[in-house]
Amino acid sequence: MRICPSAIRAGVDISVILFDPAWPVRPAVAATIAPVPLVVELFVDAPFRNHRIVVVENSASLANDFGAEFDRSASSVQVIPGPDFAGQAAILCEQEGFTSQNLILAPGSYPDLTEMGFNDKARSIAVR
Questions:
Q1: How many CB atoms within 10 Å of residue 44?
Q2: Contact, 42 vs 65, CB < 8 A?
Q3: Contact criterion met (CB below 8 Å) for 7 and 28
Q4: Which of the chain's termini has less CB crowding within 10 Å, N or C?
Q5: Which of 90, 91, 68 is nearest to 81 (CA)?
């Protein structure tokens, strides 16, 4: 799972945090975390076995974002509505950068992508 790095946000009282005056880096105000409409679990083996990744943001390249073992290796998928769900669906794409053939998955369990003709094909995923 990729998580946004921790950040001190505007309006947060940081006076209780002790900083070494000699320390060259000071905390910065970061942008807010983007909404999470879907939580998608991709599993290397069906049904829902072996290595998995949890995706909450678009990935133009599963291999670059999560490691080579997740390039064209998804065999089963769980699509779970996130806290900001408003009818979205996950889109698995056969090529990096969200191009070529794709598979649209509404929230639900997909224990074997072979049945849908998409086993071991996903190279990118859109979840927003």
A1: 16
A2: no
A3: yes
A4: N
A5: 90
